[in-house]
Amino acid sequence: MARALGWTLLCLAAAVTLLPFVYMLAVSFAAQGTIYSGALLPAPSLAAARENYAFALTEVPLARFMLNGALVCGVLLVLQVTIAAPAGYALAKLPFRGRPVLFGAVIVALMIPMQVPAIPLYVAIAWMGLLDTYTALIAPFVISALAIFLFRQFFVNYPSEVIDAARLDGFSELGIVWRLMVPAAWPAVAAFATISIINHWNDLYWPLVVVTRTEMMTPPMGLAAFRSSGESAGNVGALMAGGVMITAPLVLAFLFFQRALVRGFGMGARA
Amino acid sequence: MTGSTADLRARRRAGLLLAAPAALLLALLLFLPSSGVLVLSLTDYRFGMPGASWIGLENYARMLADDRIRQSLGNTALYAAIVAPVSILLALWLAVLIEATGRLGGFFRTVFFLPVTATLVAMATAWEVVLHPSFGMVNVALAASGLEKERFLSDPSLALYTLAFIGVWKMVGYNVLLFVAGLSTIPKDLYEAAAIDGADRGWSRFAMVTWPMLAPVTLFVTVITLIRTVSEFETIAVLTNGGPNGATEMVLYTLYQEAFRYFDIGLASALAVCFLGIVAGASILNIVLFDRRSRHG
């Protein structure tokens, strides 16, 4: 009895969770008229699907939005790791003046939500004439306290004897970071990459602040703009096709790399 | 060899050099602007206007006197008061059920985690279509069972609850994941010991072993969920714009409007300081409680 109730609840919760995904996919495959037919799910049609997806990709520059999103996420991730890994190594393994202060600052930084520095950053970016640029989308996030923290936690447990041996072999400190530590810390890198990409691909707040021109919009901002433009009112199919396309990359990546990603989220959560 | 003073000095210098870029950027991009917000909140600075003057705590007084902002803070509290407990308790229940299902558990975990990776803006528009007043699936089903159709997102008495529902939908999966991870760390012999004491199934087993052992995870999940619920922005910006009539306006949306629509930087900065207070307060509470537990427990 209790068991049957448990299964019912699990299946019901799974159904509600999947509902918007299924509906989004179904409507993106439906012809305009059939959506209003009063059926629970509209009938799929390949011709309609082609029309919806083509509209989203051409009339709405969704391909451009996705390119912007990929560029921002990619450049950001490279810069974040480049800046954070040496700092994480220094915090974990090198005795320098001000180390406790820097570590304390990293912990405090973890608690500050992005919306707090956003106002002065916006004023500065506008003053420099950098609104509507990739620099404006990327620059505020190149420093990630989470990345420094994750690297530091991972590097602390790395055996110091190996580092000493590397020094004897003539490795520079920077060489130790990039040729020894980072390759050994790939779970931390993967964990951080997951969190960073999910956060910045999906973020709406900051793009809304610094972007107004259509060609600079990121995927969520572009989709939101399409939704509130007059065009979408008569074209729900294309709107849902856009939703499918911007959601698919991360959802598919999640299904493929599930185990690494789940571990990544667990690590990020503990930070 | 490694202990010589020359080596030590070289390593100190290397540490400083390697940490310097990050320290500098942390100061420049995070701490300087965050302190800047505090300063701006004491001025009447408006973006695009020349100059600004000190007005002390006037922005904070304006904030507390403004009906719209008061409503926004109230909505945020109500939204958090619904979404946090529902998504935490539901996630705990689902996690315990998943733990008991064996091989199918992985399937359910995957399903519940999908909303976490999915783009919320896209999923919010999908929910909007599902909940559409005339042709949405939910209203079609309501009409078919002889009930009134509802305007889920434009009825002022319903809109906030609709957003809360979407909030729970989004939040549950992440919490399930954390609870499942927490459950897997509970030693099996504790359950065996409890079984000897007669607590071998269902509620008594949960109350005697699972709940106390899961307390640190629950605390952590609570703090994370609270921070995420008071930070709700996307669903409001995409689906309701704070409406109808301010019914779904919440703190981050109000902050965004004041700063980047009306350019009232002083007032927006005061709101940002309050927001920081709420979020940092929750984090600090987490650390303090966690610390005390690990010291006494």
Give start-end ranges of low-pLDDT stretches of chain B.
none
Radius of gyration of chain B: 25 Å
Task: State the shape of chain A.
Answer: globular
> What would CATH call the homologous superfamily of the largest domain in chain A?
MetI-like
**Fourth-tier CATH superfamily name of chain B:** MetI-like
The overall strand count of chain B is 0
The rough form of chain B would be described as: flat
Described by strand count, sense and barrel closure, the largest sheet of chain A is: none
- Secondary-structure arrangement, i.e. CATH architecture of the largest domain in chain A: Orthogonal Bundle
How many H/I helices of chain A?
15
- Compute the number of structural domains of chain B: 1
Integer average pLDDT of chain A: 89
Q: Structural class from helices and strands of chain B?
A: mainly alpha
- Distance N to C terminus of chain A: 41 Å
Helical residue percent of chain B?
over 70%
Subcellular location (chain A): Cell membrane
Membrane topology (chain A): Multi-pass membrane protein
Family (chain A): Belongs to the binding-protein-dependent transport system permease family.
Keywords (chain A): Cell membrane, Membrane, Sugar transport, Transmembrane, Transmembrane helix, Transport
Compact summary:
Chain B: It is a multi-pass membrane protein. The complex is a heterodimer of chains A (271) and B (297). Chain A has helices at residues 2-28, 46-58, 62-93, 99-110, 115-127, 134-138, 145-156, 160-168, 173-184, 186-202, 205-210, 219-228, 230-233, 236-256, 258-270.
Task: List the topology elements.
The complex is a heterodimer of chains A (271) and B (297).
Chain A: H1 2-28, H2 46-58, H3 62-93, H4 99-110, H5 115-127, H6 134-138, H7 145-156, H8 160-168, H9 173-184, H10 186-202, H11 205-210, H12 219-228, H13 230-233, H14 236-256, H15 258-270
Helix pairs in contact in A: 1-14, 2-14, 3-7, 3-10, 3-12, 4-7, 10-15, 12-14
Chain B: H1 5-40, H2 58-65, H3 67-101, H4 105-117, H5 120-130, H6 137-144, H7 159-184, H8 188-196, H9 202-213, H10 215-230, H11 234-240, H12 251-260, H13 265-296
Helix pairs in contact in B: 1-13, 2-13, 3-4, 3-7, 3-10, 4-7, 5-11, 7-10, 10-13, 12-13
